[in-house]
Amino acid sequence: TPAAERMTRGEPVATPLSPYEPPSDTGEAVGLGPSGLTLTIGFGPSLFDDRFGLAAMRPAVLQALPAFPGDDLDPSRSGGDLCVQACADDAQVAFHAIHNLARIGLGVVALRWIQTGFGRTSSTTSSQQNPRNLLGFKDGTDNLLADHPADFDRFVWVGAETDQPWMRGGSFLVARRIRTRLESWAATPLETQQDVIGRFKSSGAPLSGAKEHDRVDLSARGALGAPLIPLGAHIRTAAPSTNGGVRILRRGYSFADGVDPQTAELDAGLFFICFQRDPVRQFSAIQGNLAINDTLRNYIVHTSSAVFACPPGTRAAGTWGETLFRDE
Asked: Fewer CB within 10 Å, N side or C side of the chain?
């Protein structure tokens, strides 16, 4: 925790001890400043087994995600005991943080898998512009906004309903690596692309409106009586009204991991991250619907999956996970 705090201030993880010992900081972020670095830690379901005596502390909703229709998950980059999410304006600063935390934990923890992402994530305030994903569409237009803290209390932050008091004020992180068949998508006519998403590509407006933030009217119909937003459109199948009113906080990033040697196609897409107070009732319910009814499923495949319990933030002189690991 002290090392993480120093790095978020743009400082080395520790003061060098001696020129005759290995450096206390790997050094690749010297002179780059904090670059807006943030670090988030989470605990996976597997941490709460018999190895550490934590079985009784596992929240009931912290359980491995089910296999959804169409998943092609790689077990070697799914799950894990711990997660660390590093976000920064400079990718080298984010790498430096992960590199040093892994180095500090040498002999106690080992890296299981890592995923890098790029681009700005979905807007979380009304003053921001929404970014575009690799499909070329604006991403996260109907995301939860920090301007409305009551929505965060309702959908993101764990409250008194939890069976584990140490999670109050925290949130559950779900990560899904979603590979996009970009070559197939690029060969799809514009009108079809817009029908798949349910929005106009240029403006981001719903097919039932004229501007990006116009209300999504799922009941709107065209001159011939057909729904303006098709039944399988992504914004319809992901809409709260289609999923029992539940919502999640999106924090996804694009990724590009080279070329698939078997197909010579890009291995690229969306590293989807979201936060919610109940991953079973929220993410799993929504994804279960999308996996069956979303037309976008014809262009994507989920290749990794993980869920983690992120404890509340640290207090002054506190440590990560202090609500879980403190002496009772």
From this structure: C
